[in-house]
Amino acid sequence: MPVSYTFTLEDGTESRPVPGYLSDEQYGFLRLCEMGIGIPRLDRNTLDEFVRRADLLQAYIGTVLNGADGNPRVLTRADFVKLLPGARTNWTARSKRDFDQLMKKEIAAYWASVDSRK
């Protein structure tokens, strides 16, 4: 299932992102969700865990976007606060389960290929 994204604007209306017209924060949210951060909705209840996972991904995998100067830009808690009350994807509990099962299969296949090379 393709993932789609929605952002709640300051006036309370909802907007789908338009490529080329995203803020750094919106683009960072999209990239992190595509990288499998596993949190489909950003609100006050999920902010702390989203930031924790984003920090881990950026520390171990690398930054998800470049700043205006072309240098890698690390997204911070303050960046994600700008997206509150609601940046979200269309992920559901079922699509998360499907994703988790697919990841387990891929991880098992990877380790099987590593073991076969020994």
What's the total helix number?
A: 4
Computed Rg: 16 Å
Count of individual domains: 1
Widest sheet, order of strands: 2-1-6-3
Number of strands: 6
Beta-strand residue percentage: 5-15%
Word description of this protein:
15% of the residues are buried. Helices cover 46% and strands 13% of the residues. With 118 residues, the chain is α+β, with helices and mostly antiparallel strands. A four-stranded antiparallel β-sheet has the order 2-1-6-3, with helices on one face. A two-stranded antiparallel ribbon has the order 4-5. A hairpin with a 5-residue loop joins β1 and β2 (14-15). The chain has one domain. The termini are far apart. The mean pLDDT is 79. It has four helices and six strands; from the N terminus they run ββαβαββαβα.
Structural key phrases:
118 residues; two-stranded antiparallel ribbon; 6 strands
Topology:
Elements: E1 5-8, E2 14-15, H1 24-34, E3 41-42, H2 47-60, E4 65-66, E5 72-73, H3 77-81, E6 87-89, H4 93-116
Antiparallel strand pairs: 1-2, 1-6, 3-6, 4-5
Outline:
This protein is an alpha+beta fold and 118 residues long. It has helices at residues 24-34, 47-60, 77-81, 93-116; strands at 5-8, 14-15, 41-42, 65-66, 72-73, 87-89.
